[in-house]
Design a protein that fits this description.
Keywords: Nucleotidyltransferase, Transferase. By secondary structure, the chain is α/β, with parallel strands linked by helices. 26% of the residues lie in helices and 23% in strands.
Length: 193
């Protein structure tokens, strides 16, 4: 049986939003809680990478069922969080065949979209959700690609450069989830604190 780990990236400071998105309340729960619950419905194990105000997030959020990893280099961008998560999976007890990467600031993500992409899991797999033909999240990274992804990830690009250079299975998730991320608070533009 193929083991797919959920990897929730939740370390950013939310500069454009005005606060770390992990601590943003949306629909009655914190974004990080929603992301972890969604990942847990589709994956086992689930790892969540925290960074900005990590102690506050850890104390405030209900992260039951997830393993928390701290990214000390979170200010350098999403790539460092992706590397932190993949490093955590490399040392995971028991073999993990693939990582399913999702972002904290996508409250419209669903277990159905995660399962649709996870269905393509294998150690050599690369798959990405598409919405009306546009690539989005989640992104599936087979174990054989983790070192290459980690080596090429820079700044806020994550796996983009690696995926552009390799064959990737596109999984149509149109209608399964809302791919919109929350960049700014509803009703306005936030400035950095």
């Amino acid at each position: 049986m193929t083991t797919v780990a959920g990897l929730v990236l939740a370390a950013g400071g939310g500069r454009r939003y005005g606060m770390p998105k992990a601590l943003v309340e949306h629909g009655g729960s914190l974004l990080v809680e929603r992301a972890v619950r969604t990942a847990r419905a589709a994956c086992d194990p689930v790892l969540v990478v925290l960074g900005a105000r990590a102690v506050d997030v850890w104390r405030t959020a209900d992260l039951t069922g997830a393993t928390v990893l701290a990214n000390r280099d979170w200010e350098t961008g999403m790539a460092s969080s992706l590397r932190t998560g993949l490093d955590g999976l490399r040392g995971w007890p028991g073999a993990v065949d693939a990582a399913l990467v999702t972002l904290v600031d996508m409250p419209g993500m669903t277990p159905e979209a995660l399962r649709a992409v996870a269905a393509h899991a294998a150690p050599d797999a690369l798959a990405v959700a598409t919405y009306d033909g546009v690539r989005g999240h989640p992104v599936l990274l087979g174990r054989e690609h983790w070192a290459g992804v980690a080596a090429t990830a820079t700044g806020d690009e994550g796996a983009r450069r690696y995926l552009a250079a390799h064959a990737v299975t596109e999984v149509d998730c149109t209608g399964l989830a809302d791919p919109v991320d929350l960049d700014v608070p509803p009703g306005g533009v936030a400035s950095a604190p």
